Amino acid sequence: MSLRTRLFALIGGTVAVTVVLVTWTVSSSAHDAFAALDAQRTAALVAEFRREFAREGEAVVARLDRIASSDTVLRVAMDVAADARGRRASTFAEHVNDAATLAAAQGLDFLDIVADDGTIVSSAEWPARFGYRHPWAVAAASASGAFLQSIELPRDGAIGLVGVRTVVAGGRPVHVAGGRRLDQQLLRSLPLPPGMRALLSRDASGELAALSPLVARVRQTRVESTGAVDLTAGRETFTAIPLAGRNGAVLDVLLVGSSGREEAALVSRIRWSGLLFGGLGVLFGFAVSYAVASRVTRPVERLAEAANEVAAGRWDVSVGDVGASGEIEQLARAFDTMTRQLVDQRERLIQAERVAAWRELARRLAHELKNPLFPLRIAVDNLRRAKALSGAEFDEVFEESLATLTTGLANLNTVIARFSDFSKMPAPQFADVSINAIVAQAVQLFRAQADAPGRPAIGVAVSFDESLPPVRGDAEQLGRAAQNLLLNAIDAMPSGGELAVRTSRVDGAVRIDVSDTGVGLTAEERSRLFTPYYTTKQHGTGLGLAIVQATVADHNGRIWVESEQGRGTTFHIELPINPQ
Q: Which of 190, 270, 379, 576 is the most exposed place for a label (fewest CB within 10 A)?
């Protein structure tokens, strides 16, 4: 961290911390005052809500009493009592609509008429269930008031504020169970003061999803609890009330929210003021630290930038006059001296490397030319000695020597052509090319060789990623590189094996994998594999993989090999999709 940065951090941090402490103290005081006031108002509103909820339950019970005393229910009870053994479900069809008619008349969402054995005679919310067993009406027949109960519906479930009334006719009881659905429509019908809202936890979605921990805690403890959540419109405090059924199980949680917009507005003004003063303090600290540190840090930063350029390979950089004195000036002069020496040493090293490269090239070329020249010299000597022979013998020696000369000259042309290809390495002619098409064409060229009769078979497995995008490259050079890898893989399996070729897309690049099940490579062979003139074969110049590596490098890609003796070899090539 520079001196300028440290001074700026010290002064700006001091001012900012002071402003934050003051802002936090004032905000906390305002929050505590609002919290006390809001707690009182929420307690009064929750009590009022409980009273309204109780009145709604009384209204449900009163409506059930009217239904139980109606002629329709008495007629149903008489029909049920007429058969002391009960009836099959199909015999209740004449009463299938009675419950729906009574429920609509009394404004109830649920209404079931149930025989004393639990069989549903008529159902308003699910008419098709007549003849089935009612899950709770008989067990709740002794309940005098309204209670909460889970209600089964054709498509989903619901919670109802329900009650049960029993009608006895003909010596057999019939139970009337019904009530209103506990949902947002019912909650909106209850009088809520301004600034408050009520909803069920099952309806608390979207921005109210943060209340899930509060709801879970209330369901577990069955005790009323309070929590707050920050919404888009401001902070809101919610009181979570467990809604329990007859057996005490929590069926749902009622959330009563009280808006905290006033508190949020005041706290927001306090915080914005603190942020404004904090920003002014940071600007003041920046100005002071800049004025104090500029004369010291600027020369050091210039030296650091120059050092980074040297690290990036630009050794001829010079800082010149940094506008400082003393030790920093001496450091700048020493830096310039060092860069000049680095440039001189680099030039000498380049010259030495060039001489060594030409010597190595001459040595290799001489070695490669020496082998084909030897039979040429023998052929010339044979011709010289054949001058003393007769015409027929001379012709025989002449034809044999001529064939030897032709073969030797062809070998010389091959060696010279390979060295010429390696020395030329023309620049790629970039265009949009398909890697799948290039590799497929290379595989097709070598299929005949892999399946050639008289030699162990080599199985070829190809897997192409059809979603590969085009890449910028030279199709001819990339094709030769793929062919070279395939030829190496086939040569590595003289006893047969499996050749696998695969293309894929990884991290913004296209990958080509060529695998064989040959003898593999040692660690030393892997380290020298791409070195020019190095080869593990009995034939070849050792330039094939060096040319492949140069081709991949010209395409801004990379190539590497994975191998283990006895387990085969895999070459990997990665080419960028969007090269620079």
A: 190
Spell out the SS3 assignment of 54-117.
HHHHHHHHHHHHHHHCCHHHHHHHHHHHHCCCCCCHHHHHHHCCHHHHHHHHHCCCEEEEEECC
- pTM above threshold 0.70: no
Handedness of CA 283, 285, 286, 291 (dihedral sign): positive
d(CA 544, CA 254) in angstroms, rounded, equals: 78
Amino acid type, 22: V
Beta bridge partners of residue 232, listed in sequence order: none
User: How many structural domains compose the chain?
Assistant: 3
What is the domain-level CATH number for residue 352?
1.10.287
Q: Is residue 512 part of a domain?
A: yes
Strands ordered across the beta sheet of 250-260: 196-200, 250-260, 234-244, 225-231
Supply 225's token pair: 């609890």
Amino acid letter for position 410: A
Nearest to 465 by CA among 504, 509, 500, 433: 504
Which residues constitute the domain of residue 539? 431-576
254-299 pLDDT tens trace: 888 777 666 666 667 766 776 777 677 667 766 766 666 666 667 7
Q: How far apart are CA 499 and CA 516, in angstroms?
A: 5
